[in-house]
Amino acid sequence: MSRFKNVINFFKSLKFRLILFLILFGIVPGIVLKVGIVKTYEDRSVSIKTSEILSQAKILANQIVSNDYLNYPNSTIINAELDQLSNIYDGRVMVIDNEFHIIKDTYDLDTNKTIISKEVIESYYGQEIKKYDAENRYIELTVPLSRPVEQTGATEVLGVMLVSVSTDSINLNMEYLARNAYVIQLICAVAAVFLAVILSIQLVKPFHKMSKSIDEIKTGYGEDALSVNDYTETIEICKKFNEMLGRMKVLDDSRQEFVSNVSHELKTPLTSMKVLADSLNSMEDAPIELYKEFMGDIGNEIDRETKIINDLLSLVKMDKSAADLNVTNMNINELLEQILKRLNPIAEKQNVELVLESFRPVSADVDEVKITLAFTNLIENAIKYNKPGGWVHVTLNADHQYFYLKVEDSGIGIPEDSLEHIYERFYRVDKSHSREIGGTGLGLAITRNAVLMHRGAIKVFSTEGEGTIFNVRIPLNYIA
């Protein structure tokens, strides 16, 4: 079974196809050339021989008419010339009068007999007939024996000369050519097979090198990058492979970093709770106020742990297929009003002005839970990372295809070198400040995933110390 599979794989391989192509390329033109040469030789030889015989026959026909051979067929000179023509071209000559009687047959077989054939009859009407019978290997010509009529200027046909010539010599030469062609063709075929095998091995060698290099990279014993520069195609494949490998490494590093960050973020509140609890246990007569303070701190750490876990669960849901979206047609204006109503106490506590501006009524197909979570994260971040006395402007607009949400604030801004990382999980621009206000570093990752699940897009523009703008674009009609 394994051998059969190997045979099947060989027939499907590029090497086999190259061998087949090169063999056909080497053999088929030889076959076509051989057939063409033999056929051309045959046509040319028959044409030349026909022209020579016809020329001699016309000369002899004029002599027959001028010597009145049809009435006096015992002319020694004419008979000698007829026999000579027959001998030179290995053929047969018959002279036929106007009553279809054969008055001369160089083979002496049908003399004084009557002959009626299509060619003879057509020659009686003044036509010269030439026919080549390849199967029986002979050329046949009929030449009218005619003379001009002085009174009318017309031509009078007195009889017909029929010439049949064997083409055995032409066929012998053709067979000789064919044999030589077969020998040359066999040599070319052997050479073509040999060269096809050698060339195919050389041509596919770079692909074997690529396969070996990939195996080495996979096992960790090869170079960090694939490099096979034999062909333009292999260079391009290597380039794409290295790009893919780079993305995979980034993804792997990202996963490892994510696991490390999750472990750290979950461990930090537990460590704090452990320290607080151990401190309480080590005190024999701790005052009730200290107990209350420590228990309050432990409660805050539990809330923080709960928030991290909830955000992680939200991310897991976001990572699932978009088929999990529960899409309904929502009034986006009312949805934003509800979100701002819930966030307004936080804004008042931070002394931040929160404003919603809607240019037109907007209804869209969205998952209410996920889109609410995304918009809430954006607006809540704008409030939390703002300055006292600052402002947050939320703008809603739409056209015939999309609705647009713009969240602009006068906050602390995002450094330029951090802009490309803000959607990474657990990434914080200012770690100490983020922990002070309870950030987990997952909000923007959740927001971005929710927007992408709705076939939307999100962009950020920020100037450090001046503020940040998030622009969100989402289709009005969701298409799965």
Commentary on this structure:
The chain is built from 11 helices and 12 strands. The protein is of the alpha+beta class. The protein is elongated, with a radius of gyration of 51 Å. It has 3 domains: 159 residues, Beta-Lactamase; 95 residues, Orthogonal Bundle (Helix Hairpins), CATH 1.10.287; 156 residues, Heat Shock Protein 90 (2-Layer Sandwich), CATH 3.30.565.10.
CATH class descriptor name of the largest domain:
Alpha Beta
Percentage beta strand: 15-25%
Largest pleated sheet: 5 strands, antiparallel
What is the tally of beta strands? 12
Q: What is the H/E order? A: HHHEEHEEEHHHEHEEHEEHHEE
Amino- and carboxy-terminal Cα gap: 45 Å
Give the number of domains. 3
CATH domain fold name of the largest domain: Beta-Lactamase
Q: Uncertain segments of ≥5 residues (pLDDT<50)?
A: 431-438
Secondary structure tally, helices = 11
Biggest sheet strand order reads 2-1-5-4-3
- Helix/strand-derived category reads alpha+beta
The oligomeric status of these chains comes to: single chain
Instruction: Give the overall silhouette.
Output: elongated
* Fraction of residues in H or I helices: 55-70%
